[in-house]
Design goal:
337 residues; alpha/beta; Rossmann fold; 2 domains; seven-stranded parallel sheet; five-stranded parallel sheet; binds nicotinamide-adenine-dinucleotide
Length: 337
């Protein structure tokens, strides 16, 4: 039961990226419950009278949980990714699902370039070898690489892929090839990308592959053994999008064989990788724990946006980024009148 029946109950599953968001929800009139546990049962216990739930990736909202929430109007994801919500089940029940678009543009494009440069210059080795003193002997002929003038391939020219392209073409004089069959054809011209219609053709021509697409049935494992083999020997792979787009075992093998020089990995599938996974032992891979989008200013902006969108919907307003508008407009819609 919510504490105050007059106020709409909002459940936040796992604390928000900027926890001031909890206060913003309350200031906007919510009866807020924060569930700081990954236990789905603990969340379900709060759902019978909830009007909204905000869920932090990777926690999953299932059909069973929706059945425990007869008053639920809206499910908000924490960021862009929607793979952790059963959208067809929500649509069937008239529950709106919304996400928060575009917040990765600045931090994720910067993080992607950081990973590229870190792999090319063996940053984690350099840091460790300076601290333990071993680096001074080993620093010549260590195989460091330069980004300027490289040919980079980008999978997915959305907010992040296009900003990354702009930074690479203008800041690093790179040639950028892009595979994205769905992109608005005006965007490549504005950022200096060359579109390629055939993914295989792109892979053969590049030395760095950046994965920036959304995860769909089509992009799932799109970069697998065959695709990695098409990259020239010594290439680099960076994934800051969704782990499941890249077959992590195929990458592990391609690195072990020396075909791929190194990788920068912010997202994996599964996430986190099991502690025994051999990729975690590979020195030519630089990892970050899915933090590419989590800069302080973006966490705040994204949290603020999510609070506003959820409270507007609960109050009967229109969603900014609906994922299943048909749920909102259909016969079983739970849209507040
Ligand atoms: N690592 C992080 O912290 C972090 C943060 C934000 C976003 N992301 C992820 O980054 C990715 C891009 O986010 P965005 O905000 O740029 O999204 P976006 O929707 O603006 O861009 C996604 C692009 O992928 C393209 N695409 C779809 N299917 C494709 C296919 N079959 N082949 C090639 N391209 C395809 C779309 O046309 C679109 O241009 C998403 O996977 C998102 O989940 C990660």
């Amino acid at each position: 039961m919510g504490k105050d029946m007059a106020k709409p109950k909002v459940v936040v599953w796992m604390p928000m990226y900027d926890q001031t968001g909890h206060q913003w929800f309350e200031e906007a009139g919510a009866d807020l419950v924060v569930v700081d546990s990954i236990d789905a049962q603990a969340v379900m216990a709060e759902l019978p009278d909830a009007k909204a739930i905000w869920v932090r990736t990777p926690e999953r909202i299932t059909a069973e949980m929706m059945d425990a929430a007869p008053e639920l109007v809206v499910i908000s994801t924490s960021g862009f990714g929607t793979d952790n919500v059963d959208i067809p089940a929500a649509t069937e029940r008239g529950i709106l699902v919304v996400n928060n678009l575009g917040f990765g543009r600045k931090p994720v494009s910067e993080h992607t370039i950081m990973l590229m440069l870190a792999v090319m210059n063996r940053l984690t080795w350099g840091d460790r070898a300076t601290r333990d003193g071993s680096g001074w002997e080993a620093r010549t002929n260590a195989g460091f690489l330069e980004l300027e003038g490289s040919t980079v391939g980008i999978l997915g020219l959305g907010y992040i892929g296009s900003e990354l392209t702009r930074k690479l073409t203008t800041g690093f004089r790179c040639r950028v090839l892009v595979y994205d069959p769905y992109v608005d054809k005006r965007i490549p011209f504005t950022v200096g990308a060359e579109m390629v219609d055939d993914l295989d053709e792109m892979l053969k021509q590049i030395s760095i592959l950046c994965i920036c697409a959304e995860l769909t049935d089509e992009t799932r494992e799109m970069i697998s053994k065959r695709e990695l083999e098409l990259l020239p020997k010594g290439s680099i792979v960076v994934n800051t999008a969704r782990g499941a787009i890249l077959d992590i075992d195929a990458l592990t093998e391609a690195l072990a064989s020396g075909h791929i020089f190194g990788a920068g990995i912010d997202t994996t599938f599964p996430e986190p990788l099991p502690a025994s996974h051999p990729l975690l032992k590979n020195e030519n891979v630089i990892f970050t724990p899915h933090t590419a989008g989590l800069t302080t200013s973006t966490a705040t902006a994204q949290t603020r946006f999510a609070v506003n969108q959820v409270m507007s919907i609960v109050g009967g307003g229109e969603p900014t980024f609906p994922l299943n508008r048909e749920a909102w407009e259909g016969k079983v819609s739970r849209q507040p009148k």
